[in-house]
Amino acid sequence: MFSKIRRRFSEITTFVKDVANDPRIPERDKKVLLGLLALILSPIDIIPDWIPVFGQIDDIVMLALILDYFFRVLDAEILLSHDPWDMKSFARLRRWSGVASALAPSFVKCRLWRYVGSPYQ
Hints:
By secondary structure, this protein is mainly α. Helix content is 69%, strand content 0%. The protein is built from six helices and no strands. Helix 2 (27-41) packs antiparallel against helix 3 (54-73) and helix 3 (54-73) packs across helix 5. The longest helix is centred in the middle third of the chain and has 20 residues, at 54-73.
């Protein structure tokens, strides 16, 4: 079981690195994503975690913003070109991220991202 977890973590790490190095994604968006990840992993929070319920909301919203960017803003062709999993897993993750992205305020999403997708999709 430990080897399966290690393999999955390695796949996710490789996926994130490959997407981060993709030249089709604007540098500003990459910096914003890195900042959001750093805030999620950091022990310093916008709302302290010791406050019941509200302490976890900032982490959940930041995770929702990241998932929204990957699965709603970016073109699927960018993600699929780096995707280490099968299409069924990708579709499941995309469906789950749609639920999660509803937790992020739309006015924040509109002001945050600069990526412009392909007009042919």
